[in-house]
Here is the input.
Amino acid sequence: MATAPEQDLPYDVFSRACPSRATLEHVTGRWGSLTLGALYEGSLRFNELRRRVDGVSEKMLSQTLHALERDGLVHREAQPTNPPRVDYELTPLGREVAERLLALIRSVEGRMDDVLAARRRYDEARPEESPSP
Amino acid sequence: MATAPEQDLPYDVFSRACPSRATLEHVTGRWGSLTLGALYEGSLRFNELRRRVDGVSEKMLSQTLHALERDGLVHREAQPTNPPRVDYELTPLGREVAERLLALIRSVEGRMDDVLAARRRYDEARPEESPSP
Here is the structure.
């Protein structure tokens, strides 16, 4: 049984039973993070999102959007057009979370030269191991 | 082929070939994020980390630490004691990234009342579906 030092806080991602852990995973998951990042630039239709989030399958993007919509981070708007058209956009809550996420993404992108240099040093010191990608 | 609007940036997580995407996943992965968050409070030994990151297996924590060490975010220090003892701590780069990550975690934890209310609304409007957790 882990005893977290912040037991006075109502939610704690370090506790496996806390629902905030699942939401953090929706936000930071491979496709969740890229979806929130893409929608931060403005509302997008499903196929626009699919192109922006390079490599996502239709099924995974659909699941990702459902989880984010259920958590109140993404709003799905079916336009009354013919053919019907569905737009996705961030809710105010989604915008707030996406801002923090984008600060993290930009931090990682901005320090990739250092990360790649660290990887080279690590691999040179351990030529016998086959590291994960 | 996705054409990202920020092609002048050297690294872009939206591009599936960019190495920053793997690093973002190490940072935001289920165990990577909690490991970085735990180490932000100070250096920890393996078993201390395992208790703090509630629910992680020995194997997953070991893999997580290797990936973070290889990316230059975590430093592993073997103490010359008997029995030998290994401490893990954030590098300056790891601290920088962990700060952004913790801002995101606190944002999610701080808005969980809204997230749970959104989930209730979503599930009440779609009683026939069985949503993902």
Observations:
- Chain B touches chain A through 66 residues (CB under 8 Å).
- The helical segments of chain B are 19-28, 30-40, 46-52, 58-70, 92-110, 112-125.
- Chain B has one domain: 19-125.
- The domain at 19-125 of chain B is CATH 1.10.10.10 (Arc Repressor Mutant, subunit A).
